[in-house]
Amino acid sequence: MKMSFVLFFAFSMFLQGTRGEVICETLPANLCSFAIASSGKRCVLENYIDEEGKPDYTCKTSKVVVERIAGYIESDQCVNACGVDRSFVGISSDAFLAPQFTARLCSPACYQNCPNIVDLYYNLAAGEGVYLPALCEKQKTHSHRAMLALLSSGAAPSPVAIDSFGGIADAPTPAST
């Protein structure tokens, strides 16, 4: 009995030590995308040119606050289930035009288990005048109609990308990690 209490105490101390604050600027580039700082602000991957003139990537804190989630780094399981890529700088509404992406985002494995990614794309879709739950419902029954609905919303002609500070940016580019 005494030994089990000691093991429990030691294990709980170990967990306390591993649950530190999430600070975007201290995250490696390969964990930055889809992370939320302890302050509740989204982390974003940004590219820059280093001293040697080579492109490199860093993690920064955006101005975008996420309600109800703080100090969170998205799991690799959710990244894979939702079909997103941690190595992209910025996100774009163009992703909705790929039926495979929308199918993965709307899949139960993503939509029901990965609230951080779903919230991010929900807000991006809303900015394009698309209601993500309705798009997902159409995706389940008629994937081609879902694409037509998105195209008729006006989202397709001018792709929108959100930069690290919540503003409009250039189309996303892949980062080499």
Automatic annotation (TrEMBL):
InterPro entries per record: PAR1
Keyword Signal belongs to the record: yes
Pfam family, any one: PAR1
Signal peptide: 1-20
Keyword Signal: yes
Alphabetized UniProt keyword annotations: Signal
Entry-linked PANTHER family: PAR1 PROTEIN
Protein name: PAR1 protein
